[in-house]
Design brief:
This protein has 586 residues and is of the alpha/beta class. The chain has helices at residues 6-10, 20-50, 58-108, 119-134, 136-146, 148-160, 162-209, 211-217, 220-228, 231-272, 278-292, 298-318, 376-383, 406-412, 427-432, 440-449, 453-457, 474-487, 504-516, 530-535, 553-556, 560-565, 582-585, and strands spanning 338-347, 350-355, 358-360, 365-369, 391-396, 399-400, 413-417, 492-496, 522-526, 538-543, 546-551. Strands 7-8-9-4-10-11 form a six-stranded mixed beta sheet, sandwiched between helices. Strands 1, 2, 3, 5 and 6 form a five-stranded antiparallel beta sheet that branches.
Length: 586
């Protein structure tokens, strides 16, 4: 997914601001450099004309050359100002482009592939790294333009006097070596520095999420030490980066005066021999300084290297694997038959799920149970195609999920999670957000089914209350997530521990509403409570990633291993587990 050219990644398809801002920076920088190169020649010519006492027309010609010098100076100032303006626009455009692509890639990625990126790491990549990456195109243009000055000055120097030019040229390889060493060493230091920044940000966000736990446990000092532990490494890396930068500037700072002194000495000798005029000597000295000024490109080179490393980090989010969708649609009015054929999921060389020949009839409520790590959430993710299995296929009403269009899949398969992510709009907008168009009345019906209507009406603005200002508990937040899933329920509704924060009575009410008040369809429920499994029509019992049994809860309850999944003791002799009455299940 990631190619080598910055433009190829971000400019194609209108994804970025294109080459225009970078070209404008380059043109203005080159123009300013050309004006800088032309100035010494104009000044030298002016000086020579002024020194010609009594020469016919010398004063008039000197005035014209002096005017040209002033125009070149003003032009340089104007072009430098335009360069700054276009650089700012270029940086802003590319930063926005990199950030948008990274964010879009993060949202489109297969969810489990985004798991290794912690919130702090993602935040660093989307902010600091995206900003550094956005500055790379303009820095690269400025770096390319910066070569115009020394090259142009060297050419002009050769035109004025080839011997002085040869003297300066002899010292340029040393300056080139300084820049090459700086670029090589800086790349590794910048990458390590950015990684350490992400570590600190990740630990800080973890601490903020667990602030109550840290305060209750009295481990503030320990947590502070843990968060700031990489700070010493960060400081060392920062010092190393500044040392490399200072070393490059220092070496070039020594070489530039030496080259200038040598050029001045040779120019003086040429002046004494009559080969150079005073004005030409002035031009020679200035051109020697400009030619040796290639060492000043170290700052721009550092920005390019830093931007390159930052770009790789930021666009790693855009390069995460995504799901490819097909072109088929589901047959109309299908019941929601779900079938898993030869499904295998492998992670880190270990098989975490294997399901074959499991078929759930449409309209059935199925509970998925098992110990921690048995593969329940993996099965839930595969069943609704949040991930693709490494082998096998999942079918809904006879059609493979990987052959459906995105719209067909997400319209007919809905999810409810333990920790739903809701947007920053109003309560009504959060529930209505999804693949279907939901009316206000349907929003209220879904909230009633999820047991959320009561507390929503008590909010200051009711359904119009902005979510960020709504004082919601964990259970209330979870019920709004259920309401959104109910409002967009299709043929298949998958609930991955979506009622964990509800009390037993509310959970029972939600189950009853799910059967009678939500669009009919197949329900796949990850269950941790025996009451949830008891109310289901069927149970898929997972053990070590495989299917141990598929049967009703009341039959499986006679098995000691099944009871131990819920931490239940064996029934006494002559007793058995009694599921809830049929009328309660309904």
């Amino acid at each position: 997914m990631l190619t080598t050219g910055f433009q190829a990644r971000d400019g194609a398809g209108g994804a970025g601001p294109g080459r225009t801002p970078e070209v404008l920076v380059l043109l203005c920088s080159v123009g300013a450099a050309a004006a800088t190169v032309a100035q010494p020649f104009a000044l030298g010519r002016t000086l020579d004309l002024l020194l010609r006492d009594g020469a016919d027309g010398a004063a008039g010609a000197a005035g014209r050359w002096l005017a040209l010098s002033a125009v070149l100076l003003l032009g340089e100032l104007l072009l430098d100002s335009l360069t700054s303006l276009f650089t700012g626009r270029c940086n802003a455009g590319w930063t926005a482009s990199v950030r948008s692509r990274a964010f879009d890639g993060l949202l489109r990625a297969v969810p489990e592939r985004a798991g290794p990126f912690t919130p702090g790491d993602v935040g660093t990549r989307l902010t600091l790294n995206a900003a550094d990456a956005g500055g790379a195109p303009a820095a690269r243009a400025a770096l390319a333009a910066s070569t115009v000055t020394p090259v142009g000055a060297l050419v002009a120097l050769a035109v004025v006097d080839v011997w002085v030019a040869a003297c300066v040229l002899a010292g340029l390889p040393a300056l080139a070596l300084v820049l090459r060493t700086f670029a090589r060493d800086t790349g590794a230091s910048v990458a390590a520095y950015q990684n350490t920044q992400s570590q600190i940000a990740s630990r800080l966000l973890e601490a903020l999420e667990g602030a109550a736990t840290i305060a209750a446990a009295g481990t503030v000092a320990r947590e502070r030490a843990r968060i700031l532990a990489p700070l010493e490494e960060l400081a060392a890396l920062g010092r190393r980066m500044w040392a490399l930068h200072g070393r490059a500037l220092g070496r070039s700072g020594v070489l530039v005066p030496l080259l200038t002194l040598a050029a001045t000495a040779v120019g003086g000798l040429r002046l004494a021999s009559g080969a150079l005029s005073v004005g030409e000597l002035l031009a020679v000295c200035r051109y020697a300084q400009l030619t040796a000024g290639v060492g000043g490109a170290a700052s721009l080179l550092g920005a390019v290297v830093r931007g390159r490393e930052a770009r790789n980090r930021a666009l790693a989010l855009a390069g995460m694997p995504t799901l490819d969708y097909g072109t088929r649609r589901l047959p109309p009015a299908g019941p929601g038959d779900l079938e898993l054929r030869g499904v295998r999921v492998v992670r880190d060389g270990r098989q975490v799920l294997r399901v074959d020949g499991v078929r759930v009839e449409g309209g059935t409520t199925v509970a998925v149970v098992g110990r921690s790590g048995a593969g329940k959430s993996v099965l839930a993710a595969v069943a609704g195609r949040l991930i693709d299995p490494d082998e096998g296929h999942v079918l809904l009403d006879g059609v493979r999920l990987d052959r459906l269009t995105r719209e067909a899949l997400r319209t007919e398969v809905a999810y409810a999670f333990e920790r739903p992510v809701l947007d920053d709009g109003t309560v009504a907008e959060a529930v209505a957000a999804g693949p279907r168009r939901v009316s206000p009345e349907q929003v209220r019906e879904a909230c009633r089914a999820a047991g959320a209507d009561g507390f929503v009406r008590r909010l200051p603005g009711g359904y119009a209350t902005p979510l960020p200002t709504a004082p919601l508990s964990g259970g209330e937040h979870q019920r709004l997530g259920l309401a959104r899933a109910f409002a967009h329920a299709g043929r298949l509704l998958i609930m991955d521990d979506a009622t964990s924060s509800l009390d037993t009575a509310t959970e029972h009410e939600v189950d009853r509403a799910l059967r009678h008040s939500v669009r009919p369809g197949t329900r796949l429920v990850v269950a941790h409570r025996p009451s949830v499994a008891a109310r289901a029509d069927l149970v898929i019992w997972l053990e070590d990633g495989g299917v141990r049994a598929v049967a009703p809860h009341r039959e499986l309850w006679h098995t000691a291993d099944y009871r131990s999944v819920f931490g239940a003791a064996a029934p006494r002799a002559g007793t058995a587990h009694r599921p809830e009455p049929e009328e309660a299940r309904r």
